[in-house]
Amino acid sequence: MLWSLRRACSLGRHLSSTLRQHSVLAGSHAGSSALWAIAGGTTGLGLAMTVNSVAFAEAAPQAPASGAPPPPGAWEQVQGFWSKAVSVAPSGWWRGGATAQVPLPTDKLQCHAPARGAAGPGKPPVGYRPVVLVACGSFNPPTIAHLRMMELARDAMTAQGYDVLGGYLSPVSDAYWKEGLAPAAHRVAMAQAAAASSDFVMVDAWEAAQPHYTRTLVELQRVQAELGRAFSTEERGGAGVLASSAGPAPSPRAVLVCGADVLETMADPSLWRQDLLDALLSQHGVVCVTRGGARALSLLETPGTLLHQHAGRVSIVQEPVPTDISSSLVRKELEQGRSVRYLVPDDALTHIYSHGLYGSLQQPAREGTQLHAQQHA
Predict the structure, then answer these.
(1) Looking at the keywords, is Nucleotide-binding present (predicted)?
(2) How far is CA 104 from its chain centroid?
(3) What ranges in the chain are assigned the alpha helix state H?
(4) How confident is the model over 181-237, as pLDDT tens digits?
């Protein structure tokens, strides 16, 4: 084990030097994650999970503009070390912890299946298609635009004949390397506060609790599997999540909700592992909420891409009241001591002020009596 740790530190230093010389890799989330993981943070133990996958992992929000590969031999050395280290690294050991187990909230799920038209006792209505919506992201902090995106996605899926049982915000974990990322515990709390007023949006804290970066596909699979187990319990006569709903409750499909920026990354084969993207599109599907529908539609019309191949699994939703609200702009306003009220849900803003997040300790009194009082409590 001692040899492995020394070897990890040595390889981490070598890879760090190599990556700095190649901005295309250093600028990508996959490259940054691998470098961070191998270097091991302060412990030198984060060497297991991210280097096990081939080359570049799924979707990098801060992805390279160029698709140039890393220098020959760099990743081969990483994978070679992994093959030796795996025999001494306990399963799931990443930054000293195993996969965290967090229950999936179901309190807002609601089945809208019609009472008539069922195929028979214990069977769903003919043509009934239940789904749940899942938005993955930093939520750093959550804004009204995130909630607006979920509302538009629900309207669009309902108009297409789907029954939207509920929705989830899934904040990324602290292992998702991004400058200025607030601790996961705060981002989960802010997301929960933001979603409190919604009649269908909940927060899945599972991804945020993981000690490693979690792929979008894995989160979708987790939600779908958890709900599948919950719904099958109900069918067996147990205390299912929709026990009080009339009619049958078949297991829903988890559908990804995202913005046009994420859809654009899916069009670049260098940013997503194609086998994982193929599974995401074919097994789950995407609802893309965008201010520029023409650009998003053109991505589906490009021959030879997975988006084109699975165009029928991607719904493009045009935002009828476009805004430029973003988490990054909200953070900048907070850092400057300016008001962000009505850009962030009040309950989430209260959490920001109460904990001094994003440099928000000193706020003007015009934010409101309640917020101002909590800030200086």
Answers:
(1) yes
(2) 15
(3) 2-20, 23-26, 29-39, 74-85, 144-159, 184-195, 206-209, 216-235, 260-266, 274-283, 293-300, 306-309, 327-335, 346-355, 369-375
(4) 999 999 999 999 999 999 999 999 999 999 999 999 999 999 999 999 888 765 545
Q: How many CB atoms lie within 10 A of CB 163?
A: 20
User: What tokens appear for 95 in the block?
Assistant: 């930054």
Query: Region 75-87: what's the mean pLDDT?
Result: 32
Residue 203 neighbours by CB under 8 Å, 6+ apart: 105, 168, 169, 170, 171, 188, 191, 192, 195
Residues 181, 229 contacting (CB under 8 angstroms): no
Sign of the dihedral defined by the CA atoms of residues 206, 207, 211, 217, in that order: positive
Residues across the chain? 377
Provide CATH code, domain 130-318.
3.40.50.620
Read off φ and ψ for residue 203, nearest 5 degrees.
Answer: -120, 125
Question: Checking phi first, is residue 338 left (phi over 0); if not, alpha (psi -120 to 50) or beta?
Answer: beta
Q: Where in the chain is the domain with CATH 3.40.50.620?
A: 130-318
Q: Give the 3-state secondary structure of residue 305.
A: coil
Candidates 334, 374, 377; CA nearest to 357 is: 334
